Amino acid sequence: VSVFFGELAKQLAGRWLSLLALPGVLFLAAVWIGSRLGQTHAMDLQRLASASTASELAHRSVTVQVLALIGLALASAVVGVVVQALVVPVRALCLGLWPFGLGGMLTSRRRNRWHELVRQRTDLERARPVLERSTEEQRRIDRIAGRINAIAMAEPGRPTWMGDRVHALAEITVNRYGLDLAFGWPRLWLVLDDAVRTEISIAQSAFATAMFTATWSVPYLALGVVWWPAAAIGVGIAAAGWARARRGIATLTDLTEATLDLYGRTLAVALGVADESTTGPLTPDEGRTITDIIRKGR
Amino acid sequence: MARFPAAVRQLLADIETEARAGRPIRDLLSELSIDPDENTRQHWPLPGVGPGRASEERFGCPEDLCDRAATTVPAGALPRCWLTGRYMTRRSG
Question: What is the DSSP letter of B89?
Fold first, then answer.
């Protein structure tokens, strides 16, 4: 058993190393390089080679070297912890939870584009009934429907695409199932199968990791004030994290909507709202009754 | 433990049994992934499927008492009967 815990500790240490310490060391290296070169000699490799800190350290005593290593490890851990704390505002930014109504204009723009495409689609559908439509006419309608979904899966309500993925999920749940997602989700989670919970947990972890990756761009962008190549690195990290976060939130919301479609009735049965003999997705009336039970007038 | 799927629980039990018996467990541990990405198990959308077929929703009287038809925006709120307040039902086509 001790071997098991030893191996587990090793894996956890490896995860800590890859998520916090190693990126922290890389950032500290960037800080060191940036402090040596500055903006005026940002790409001057000869100047960097002549910087003597590393060679000076090699000639110091073992004690000094060990202390320097400990200092480096602590500093990288501190940087990692600070970045971890920054994940919350970065996530709020990505999910369109902006303060003081800052996203109002962007949200309106997204909503207008979405409604314009819905109008185009409706016009085409009304112009020719489905049974009289040519293949090309149907394809055109399908393409517009795809563009509508690419903007948002329901009427936009947030200034960002990622925010609207989550917003749409909450809207669909209340519009189609009468269920309040904020209060309903913890109850639904408790009646889900292990396999479903695992799939959703994996998707949540993937999104959280992507957010963490994107957050590492913040210190690099800040360092860009004194050494511009750091800003370029920051933009690269932000782009990679953003792309992964988009994929992650799409997967998470797709899986959550699928879970509601497939397991909404399980929740209704568990709460006594529906009989065990009933089948099919949750009805809006059942969902409203569940919402009344779980929100308790709040 | 309960939050893990059955296969993982079985694997954990096997690891414990082997460890108690003093046999090597390195190979079993390598099967026990705690990587948060777990890309091999993550759900991926089907590549190249395209936008799919647009779903045209039309709603009618829940009791078939009148001919009123209604529509809503994609994934929008279900229309209700003006008289009874009941949700209108989906019509095919």
Answer: E
ipTM: 0.76
Q: Pairing state of beta strands B69-70 and B89-91?
A: unpaired
Look up the pTM and report it: 0.81
Using a CB–CB cutoff of 8 Å, tell me whether A206 touches chain B.
yes
Q: Is A218 on the interface with B (CB under 8 A)?
A: no
Give the three-state DSSP class for B80: strand
Per-position pLDDT tens, chain B of length 93: 555 667 777 788 888 888 888 777 877 777 776 554 454 556 677 888 888 999 999 999 988 889 889 999 999 999 999 999 999 999 875
- DSSP assignment of A27-57, as one string? HHHHHHHHHHHTTTTTT-HHHHHH--HHHHH
In total, chain B counts a number of residues equal to: 93
Q: Which amino acid is at A171?
A: E
| CA–CA distance, A45 with A31 (Å, rounded to integer) | 15
Q: CA of A150: which chain B residue's CA is closest?
A: B51
